[in-house]
C-alpha cells in the first residue's frame, strides 16, 4: 500500500475534549503509540489548532466548553476538516438529557466525519482521518473521479 | 486574579491531562508561592441524569463517568445497590469482578507511568509503557468484548463468565507482566535521570496527606497505609491478605515525593498480578448472576427501599457510591465520589515552592482523572505582571530542565 505517494501533505490533527469521559481520548493517544503508530502516515497530534488540518472533537459539549469549541474551530486555518469521535459527540449518547449538555457537536460547528462508538476503536479513528483526507483533497481541487481513481490505485 | 484569564483550552495532547482545568499560580521568579484551582469544565450532570433512569441503565452511565476507571465506578455502584436492596452476589461473580478490577488497575497504572515519562520529556519511555499496556487491553477485550467501557458489571453479579478456554490466554498475560517488571524497574526506578527529576520534587508529608484526606497511591506514597482492600475487605478481596503498598517496601524510606509515587504504582501492578493469580487458582464454581432475568431484577429493585454505600479501591484511590432507593423505578439520590476529588487538594502542598518546570510532573503525579493544565496563569508577585503559559510552553520548560540535568 503506497499511501504516502498521495499524502504529499500529511495531516496534522488537533484534539479537543469538550467534556468527554476520557475513553475516546486514551484511544486517540493509543493511536500514536507503537501498536497503531499513525505517525508512519504522517498523522501527528499538534498542540495548537493554528497548526492543524483536522480537528478531532470528543465529548458531548457542555456549557462551559461551548465558547471554546467555537473559538478553536475559528482558529483552525482553512481548508480544514472536523471529525467527531465517539457516540456522545455525534448524537449525545448516554448524556442526551443532561441540563449541562448543549451538544451534539454538529449543532454548533460543521462536521465532516462522524466516528461512532462508545468508545471508538483506534482503527476507526484512522478510517475517519482517511475520510477527512478525501474531503481535503476535494477542497484542493481534485474531482470525485480523480479521487476515486487515486483510491483504486492505493488499494491495488 | 480572575478566571477570565483563560479563554482557549490549548494543548490537550494527553488524555489523562486532556480535560480542562484551570490553575492560578502565584510565582516569584522561578518559585511557586501559591496555587489556586478552578475545576468544573467537564461537568456533565451525571448524578442528575441518573435520577431519571432505572438502576440497570445507571450502571452504563456510571461506567462513563470516566473511561479509564470504567470498572471501578460500576463496581462501587453495584455494591451500593446490592447493599441497599439486600441482594446476595454469587461467589464466582465476586471473583470475576475482582479479576476485571485488577486488570483495570494494571492498565491504568502503566498508562500513568507513560504519561509521567512524557511529562519529563522521555517520549521513548511513553511508547514503551503504552506498548506494554496493550497486552492487558487485548485480554480485557477477549474477556469482556471491549477495550474500554467493559459492560461487565450487573446488579447481583457479572454479565460474562470466564471459561476454561480463557485460562491459557490470561496466564500468558500474567507471565508477560511478570517478565515486564524488570524492564519497568530498570526504566523508572533505576534510571538516574528520572530519579534526579522526581526525587525531592512535589513532596507531601504524612501529616498533609492525613489532613487533606488524600486517597490511593497519592496517600500511600506519603506513608499512609490506607487501602479499602486492606481496611474493609469486600468482595473476593476478603479471602486474601492484601497489604497497602508504601514506598519503604522498595527503598526503605518514605519521602512522599514524586519518585515514591512511581514506586507505589509500579509495585501495585505486580500486586494486581498476584491477586489475579489467586483468584484464578481459587475461582469457585457456580452461577455468575443472582437474578439473570433483568425484568424480574428491575421489579425487585422497584420494591426496594433503603440506603446503600459501595466502596471500592479504584486505581486512583477510594471511590464511594451512595444510593437511596424509595420504592420507585428511579433512585431518589445517587451520589458518586471519585478519588481525584480527594486528591485535588494534595496539589496545594505539593506545588508550593516548586519550580515552574516541575509543574507538569507534579500535576501528573496524583494521576488526575479530571483536570488539565491546559492553561496556566503566572503572576509574578514582585511586579504583579500576569503571564499566561500554555501547556506546550510548560512542556518545553520541563523537557529543557531534564536536558539541563543530563548534561
Explain what you see.
- The complex is a heterodimer of chains A (156) and B (407).
- Chain A is an alpha/beta fold and 156 residues long.
- Helix content of chain A is 35%, strand content 13%.
- Chain A has helices at 23-32, 66-75, 87-91, 122-139, 144-155; strands at residues 12-17, 44-45, 54-58, 81-85, 113-115.
- The longest helix of chain A is centred in the C-terminal third of the chain and has 18 residues, at 122-139.
- Chain A is globular and about 50 Å long.
- Chain A starts with 11 loop residues before the first strand and ends with a helix.
- Mean pLDDT of chain A is 81; it is low at 1-5.
- With 407 residues, chain B is of the alpha+beta class.
- Chain B has 2 domains: 3-43 and 342-406, no CATH class; 46-337, Cytochrome-c3 Hydrogenase, chain B, CATH 1.10.645.
- Chain B contains 17 helices and 9 strands.
- In chain B, the strands form 3 sheets. Chain B has a 4-stranded mixed β-sheet with strand order 2-1-8-9. In chain B, strands 5-6-7 form a 3-stranded antiparallel β-sheet. In chain B, strands 3-4 form a two-stranded antiparallel ribbon.
- The chains are: A alpha/beta (156), B alpha+beta (407).
- At the A-B interface, strand 1, helix 1 and helix 2 of A face helix 1, helix 5 and helix 17 of B.
